[in-house]
Design a protein that fits this description.
This protein is α/β, with parallel strands linked by helices and 417 residues long. It contains 17 helices and 7 strands. It holds the Pfam family Cellulase.
């Protein structure tokens, strides 16, 4: 995976994988009364295998986003939540309150169990939860419970929220509630193969819709959602799959070429508008399938050999540093000129300069590791909190934030110059 530019994986688990093997005595009360209580012996070895997988990923410098894919009662009506009864009992019925309370405690325990692994990049509270009147309140309670953990690493765990297919609402929620000590991110899933509308659109039209260099509806929508969430948006699931009719409508003779156009248009859009993306799946059971299997997509050529645009490149660090010093000079002068012309008192422009310089230093560390800053806003908030602690409160702390974000953007431009 690392050789193909993968630096993070999303690992879906059920609550029963965790509770059955993490500490059966301690967590027995949380399993009591759940649908999987009687199956504890089946899953008692699961958690140790999950931890072994996290350790193996760490050995290859790969991060792990742990996703609670199945919660007590079922957070959606689909079988992938762990239940096939379609009742969605986490939100409906006599036991919904108990299921929600139990799930929150499970999430706190999960955060604490994972806190010691420095390659765990976050915890996703629920996969594809059904939208309902309790969900936002549940998210707020779960976030608060994790942030009040006695484990200092757990309380700072990055938290990812499934968008429940009301993406705009939860993009606003993430944008309003994230902070330096409480990083949040939004997870949206992109598939274009399930609805009649999807079926009646050609592969080229699907690709045009999401092409980041065009004026496609989906590309514009992604840009807007990302802006609302301050850039803290990931695509937790996507694939190269399309309905057969989309290929039949295509004017491209080769199905592989049509799939490649669709797959790589998505990839470029996610590179530009999101902080990360996870192909579903890494390896699909059964025969080769470039639509749903990343390995096959790479082997067949519908996906590039590496997801990392920097792979194989040797950035000229001296050249990049030179560009950034000039960017710092130009941006600082422009910032001072603009705000001094607005009036409003004695500004503290040195904060802008310092923010820009710190962003450059951070970006260079990422570049040396063959990567880029992803969650710029969250990192800016962390640096801002440290800056405030060091320099004291001020009405002009925003200048530091503006400088940091400008510096991070300049580093990206310099990297691809």
């Amino acid at each position: 995976m690392a050789q193909h530019g993968v630096n993070s994986v999303r690992l879906p688990i059920g609550y029963f994988h965790f509770l059955s093997g993490a500490d059966s005595g301690r967590f027995a009360s949380l399993m009591k009364g759940t649908e999987f209580e009687k199956y504890v012996p089946v899953y008692e070895g699961a958690w140790q295998r999950i931890l072994a997988g996290i350790e193996k990923a760490r050995a290859h410098n790969i991060g792990v986003l742990v996703d609670l894919h199945g919660a007590p009662g079922g957070q959606n009506k689909d079988g992938h939540c762990g239940l096939s009864d379609g009742k969605c009992s986490m939100w409906h019925g006599l036991h919904s309150g108990k299921h929600q309370k139990t799930t929150i405690q499970i999430l706190v325990d999960l955060a604490e169990a994972l806190a010691g692994y420095d390659n765990v990049v976050g915890l996703e509270l629920l996969n594809e939860p059904a939208n309902n009147s309790d969900l936002e309140s549940f998210y707020s309670k779960a976030i608060s419970a994790i942030r009040n953990s006695s484990n200092p690493q757990a309380k700072q765990m990055p938290i990812f929220l499934g968008d429940a297919w009301v993406t705009g609402h939860y993009a606003n929620y993430v944008g309003q509630h994230t902070s330096g000590g409480s990083p949040l991110a939004l997870d949206h899933h992109v598939y274009r193969c399930f609805t009649p509308q999807d079926h009646n659109m050609s592969a080229e039209d699907h690709a045009r819709n999401i092409d980041p260099d065009g004026n496609g509806k989906t590309a514009g929508w992604l840009r807007d959602i990302s802006n609302r969430a301050h850039g803290s948006l990931i695509i937790g699931e996507w694939s190269g799959a399309l309905n057969p009719h989309s290929f039949q409508l295509s004017k491209i003779q080769s199905k592989l070429e049509a799939r490649t156009l669709w797959s790589q248009s998505q990839w470029r859009a996610f590179e530009r508008f999101t902080a990360g993306y996870y192909y579903w799946t890494l390896k699909k059971e059964g025969g080769p399938d470039p639509g749903w299997c990343f390995y096959t997509a790479v082997e067949k050529g519908s996906m590039p050999p590496s997801l990392n645009p920097l792979q194989g490149r040797q950035p000229n660090m001296q050249q990049i540093q030179g560009i950034l010093q000039q960017e710092l000079k130009n941006n600082y002068e422009g910032h001072c000129r603009y705000w001094d012309g607005q009036g409003g008192g004695k500004y503290e422009h040195w904060r802008y300069e310092q923010g820009f310089q710190i962003a450059i230093a951070d970006a260079l560390e990422f570049i040396k590791a063959g990567s880029e800053i992803g969650f710029t806003h969250n990192l800016a908030m962390l640096r801002l909190a440290a800056h405030e602690q060091e320099s004291g409160k001020s009405g002009f702390l925003w200048e530091f934030e503006h400088g940091y974000k400008a510096g991070a953007a300049a580093a990206t431009r310099a990297l691809y110059a």
